[in-house]
Amino acid sequence: MLMKRRSVRNFKTDEVGEDVVEKLVRAAANAPTGGNMEPLSIIVVRDAERRAKLGEMVGSQPWVKNAPLSMIFCLDFYRLKRWAAASGVDFRGDEALSHFLIGYADVMCAAQTAVVLAEDLGLGSVYVGTIQYVADEVRPYFEMPTHVFPVILLSLGYPKTIPRGVRKLKREVVVHRETYRALSDDEIIAAYDDKYGSLDENAERYFERTFAEAVEADKQDTPGWVEAYREQMKTLAIKNNAEFLFKLRYPSDRMVELKAEEIATFKRAGFDCFGP
User: Fold this and answer.
1) Which of 84, 67, 60 is nearest to 214 (CA)?
2) Which of 112, 114, 198, 229 is surrounded by the fewest CB atoms within 10 Å?
3) Between β-strands 40-45 and 69-76, what pairing exists: parallel, antiparallel or unpaired?
4) Residue-range domain boundaries for the chain
5) Are 119 and 5 in contact (CB under 8 A)?
6) What tens digit of pLDDT does each residue of 23-69 get?
7) Domain 2-162: what homologous superfamily?
């Protein structure tokens, strides 16, 4: 089952029943948690207006609006701080990097547990990490108090289509026996060329493997993504897969520049664990 899992962005209009939603949230809440503290909250979003607004906030991603169910997985230190204060003790996890990292991992374990169960129940799902970058907009809209932060958005529904052409790195590239085995430059380049394919292909076929969001946006509510990115590839003279990823999709300089903005976003949410 898990070997067939793919990120699904094209959903049927069928509703996800409340019994199924309850199974998903129960499984997610039963995921592993460091110190058994459960710094997790899940906001279940089914209302069409809210789904549409959420889709706009995370960058006009039509699958968020079209999916009948979204779940926002939040790191929640608000509840822990309230509990500690009411019990006469101090919890300062919002200032401790170790608490933050463990809590962040807890949230992702919970989300992935929901993904695994969703697959077993015949649902498709897609993670949307962009929600972190628009937390200043998301938090007030969903009435999140200080010390609650949206870590990941999971959109789910019954698949209309399931991507088939997504390649992964071969196991011998990512699995190391007993100790880490450093690959040569040639081995690394060959591994990623095998994963991503050739830049000389038809743009849509190439994007189906490397940038499925562009293809799905074209097919749904936001046409023109494939052509726009194809033109940017020409402008930037993209010559290989690494350049496509680190000059176009995730420009290295811009990703580093974003660090200050991202830390400020966490601080505005009450998380001050990243140093001065």
Assistant:
1) 60
2) 198
3) antiparallel
4) 2-162, 171-255
5) yes
6) 999 999 999 999 999 999 999 999 999 999 999 999 889 999 999 99
7) NADH Oxidase (3.40.109.10)
